Amino acid sequence: MAAAHLYQRKGLLIQLPIALAALVAMAVLWQLFLPMPAARVVLSSGDANGAYHAHALKYAEFMGRHGVDVDVQTSGGSVQNLRRLQGLEQPAAQLAIVQGGASAGPREAGAAKLVTLARVDVEPVWIFARTGGIDSLQQLQGQRVSLGPKGSGTRQLALLLLQQVRLTPRDIVDTDVSNMAAVEAFRAGTLDAAIMVGSPGSPVVRAMLQTPGVQIVQLSRTAALLERLPYLQVRLLPAGSLDPAARLPARDLSLLVTTASLVARADLAAPLQRLAAAAALEAHGGSGLFHRAGEFPSLRRVEFPASIEARHTLAQGLPWLEEQLPFFWAQLLVRLLVICLPVALVAWWAARLLPAYLHWLLESRLVRWYGELKYIENDLANDAVAGIQISRHLASLYDIERRMNALAVPSDLMPRWFTLKQHVDFVRVGLRRRSGR
Prior knowledge:
Elements: H1 2-8, H2 10-33, E1 40-44, H3 51-65, E2 69-73, H4 78-85, E3 95-99, E4 114-129, E5 144-146, H5 153-164, E6 173-174, H6 180-188, E7 193-197, H7 203-209, E8 215-216, H8 223-228, E9 233-237, E10 253-265, H9 270-283, H10 308-316, H11 320-324, H12 327-381, H13 388-406, H14 414-435
Parallel strand pairs: 1-2, 1-3, 5-6, 5-7
Antiparallel strand pairs: 3-10, 4-7, 4-8, 4-10, 9-10
Helix pairs in contact: 1-2, 1-12, 2-12, 3-9, 9-10, 12-13, 12-14, 13-14
């Protein structure tokens, strides 16, 4: 009988295949639905002396404490950072710090989708000029102007600002100088104006403020700019906030500001998105010259879709396991709990249920034969058998005995099998006595 054969070899024919199937199911589910994320990411920052690079080093330090290696790559600015994120330029990056407005250009074919993990900082748009009384970008027409390094977010934003007042690079003298070279050009009298984006503590901004004859331009009628460029805002720069001793600036100024965001590829593993958002939370939770404590990091007014994982992390922090364990062990334990444990429980249940079913099936055979035997015994007890009926009952007993001998009885049912065989012999003797043989 197939059931008896399977039950006798249940370890080899039932439990071993179930265990192998469970291992295959774990491997497939692990690979397709929750593959282990790489414990290494590339983060494209910015100039080695800039604020973006300093932020990136903080993220790398935080993620390193959790067991993730962060390769911080310097770059020429936000535009290059975006190209690296989108896979359009090498080295490809999974994380980058991007200035507001850097994504305003046309989307290139084949560019990867991006998500925002957090807006992390406010960056003033500084406009410095040698000529006093400038309060409009149109007044820069014909002047020698530094727009920032090519490929930088600063230059892209500067071109967008000029475009709003119908100026193009042909309407100004677009110089090639930027950063500290622009400071030297101001001092040498070969530069009239400069547009740059940078933190108040930037060495270039500090040098500009200390250059004789160079003034900060405060634009008037900025409402139209804010309407057309929603990633810009106006913030107050209080008098003396940059240098109280020198009283810089000498009066309160309203400056255009943009924001810097931590951006990731949309296909970056969810645990790495959460960890990067947690790094931003630790690095940017304090106050700054243009924002209060707790204002950053945030996901308001973002240019790329907000990451769901980052939103949960900024609101609730990292999950408990990822907070308590190193990255690798946390991810391994999650997969053991989510994939391996349920599959193992199902396999254990099946490995017990199938043999139990086969045992019940074999036991039911014995019970049915007992029922047939009981029917014959009842006839004997009631003196209801004689002649040809005795012959039929004897044939039934031989048939029961034949089927019993064909059954490979498991050891735990062997006592019942022998008891049934004895009962068959006992009834056979009774039938023969009744027939006179």
